[in-house]
Design a protein that fits this description.
Number of strands: 17
Distance between the termini: 58 Å
Family: Belongs to the metallo-dependent hydrolases superfamily. ATZ/TRZ family.
Protein name: 8-oxoguanine deaminase
Structural class: alpha/beta
InterPro entries: Amidohydro-rel (IPR006680), Metal-dep_hydrolase_composite (IPR011059), Metal_Hydrolase (IPR032466), MTA/SAH_deaminase (IPR050287)
Helix content: 25-40%
Number of helices: 14
Enzyme class: hydrolase
Radius of gyration: 21 Å
Strand content: 15-25%
Largest sheet: 9 strands, mixed
GO molecular function, one term: 8-oxoguanine deaminase activity
Bound molecules: zinc ion
């Protein structure tokens, strides 16, 4: 017998289904990890093994975070990296990150995921590209399992150090054959290609300025052999574009195309400086973009042309990016920032609140190459979150609670259900002792910065 869960009486249920239904007094009937029915409470079965009464709550599909570096939660607001652009910021931080340990990967993943979960995110990708002192992607994967988040673990890498004209110090780069071998091991050990997968592995060299052409090309071949996705950073700012032109004689988009890095199984972070030809290429090939507005503002990278990308048909999702270039991993805040920043760049109708929410749900799902998350409809994964509409932040905005979630001050969830399991209840994580996690995180963060001598 499947275990059943009834969600009832939601003030408003935002489905993101094909009709984009927003249902007053809505709910869902769930069996195990998937939605059987979504609609008005009165049309649903009246009992279940477990019942969640969502009276006074807004219920939405779980948000999808498409770009992050969770280990960076250990190095927020580092004085030497507070006021630099991308390359200078990285150069200062590499020295600290060289002292990361497996324990630090574990704790920072938990802290980052806790912050994401409490802010409405149920599926996250993480791009870990530095593996000093025995650190492994397995450390992140174990942490994700413990906390209960749906996870796309991206095996990042850096292979071109300063000696070879790259940006990272030689001490933190890996050999390319070792990178490919470990990526293959991770795919074979962990990757679940099935529907409702809680864990997928992604092949993800860090960026064109930290790996070789050969690794980019071989990574794409490996990913295609196993049917896993590809992810990297691209066209992040003007210096990134200049590096590409000087080193490869191509724009970042041309470079990506040349190496097989386009397609529905590829997504690139940032793309702030993606040109018109690049936008057309991405639209034509279904190549996705992770839009990270806070990070782009923090590093003064610019305003990504999300409005133009979406008009052209490019799949776009939201990413909080690493916590050293955002210093926060609050998903609702990131959605709000996406809306505000597009308007700064392209006018008041450049993005609506509902469009911002759609990008953060359906958009993120598409970018991660999934069709089983991002909407609340029969056959979809049971991933949803609720917000208590009696919070001060929403006072005076209840005539449109959906828009309120994006326009008003960023809120935390009261409930989060992932894969049919309750991960946040009454605003508290059910899977880990968050106080203890944060205490250990702070202790290890202090040790990390001290070890670097900065
Ligand atoms: Zn990034």
């Amino acid at each position: 017998m499947p275990r059943s869960l009834l969600v009832k009486n939601a003030h408003m249920l935002v489905t993101m289904d094909e009709q984009r239904r927003e249902i007053c007094d809505g709910g869902m009937y769930i069996e195990d990890n998937r939605i059987v029915q979504a609609g008005p409470t009165s049309e649903l079965p009246q009992t279940a093994d477990e019942v969640l009464d969502m009276r006074g709550h807004l219920v939405i599909p779980g948000l999808v975070n498409t770009h992050h570096h969770m280990y960076q939660s250990l190095t927020r607001a580092i004085p030497a990296a507070q006021n630099a652009e991308l390359f200078g910021w990285l150069t200062n931080l590499y020295k600290i990150w060289a002292h990361l340990t497996p324990d630090m990967i574990d704790i920072s993943t938990k802290t980052a995921m806790a912050e994401l979960l409490l802010s409405g995110c149920t599926t996250s990708s993480d791009h870990l590209y530095i593996y000093p002192n025995g650190s492994r992607l397995d450390d992140s994967i174990a942490a994700a399992r413990e906390i209960g988040m749906r996870f796309h673990a991206a095996r990042g890498s850096m292979s071109v150090g300063r000696r070879d004209g790259g940006l990272p110090p030689d001490s933190v780069v890996e050999k390319e054959d070792a990178i490919l071998k470990d990526s293959q091991r991770l795919i074979e050990t962990y990757h679940d290609e099935g529907r409702y997968a809680m864990l997928r592995v992604v092949v993800a060299p860090c960026s064109p300025f930290s790996v070789s052409r050969e690794l980019m090309r071989d990574a794409a071949l490996l990913a295609r052999e196993y049917g896993v996705s590809l992810h990297t950073h691209l066209a992040e700012n003007v210096n990134d574009v200049a590096y590409s032109r000087e080193k490869f004689g191509m724009t970042p988009a041309e470079y990506a195309e040349d190496l097989g890095w386009v397609g529905h199984d590829v997504w690139h972070a940032h793309c702030v400086q993606l040109d018109k030809a690049g936008i057309e290429l991405f639209a034509r090939t279904g190549t996705g973009v992770a839009h990270c507005p806070c990070s782009n503002m923090r590093l003064a990278s610019g305003i990504a042309p999300i409005h133009a990308m979406r008009d052209a048909g490019v799949p776009v999702g939201i990413g909080v990016d690493g916590s050293a270039s955002n210093d926060g991993a609050q998903m609702v805040a990131e959605v709000r920032q996406a809306l505000l920043l597009q308007r700064v760049g392209f006018g008041p109708d450049a993005m609506t609140a509902r469009e911002a929410l759609e990008i953060a749900t359906l958009g993120g799902a598409k970018v991660l190459n999934r069709d089983d998350i991002g909407a609340l409809a029969p056959g979809m994964a049971a991933d949803f979150v609720s917000f208590d509409l009696s919070q001060t932040a929403f006072a005076g905005a209840l005539h449109d609670p959906v828009a309120a979630l994006v326009f008003c001050a960023p809120s935390q969830v009261s409930t989060s259900v992932i894969d049919g399991k309750i991960v946040v209840k009454d605003g508290r994580l059910t899977t880990v002792d968050l106080g203890a996690v944060v205490e250990r995180h702070n202790r290890l963060a202090r040790g990390l910065v001290e070890a670097s001598g900065l």
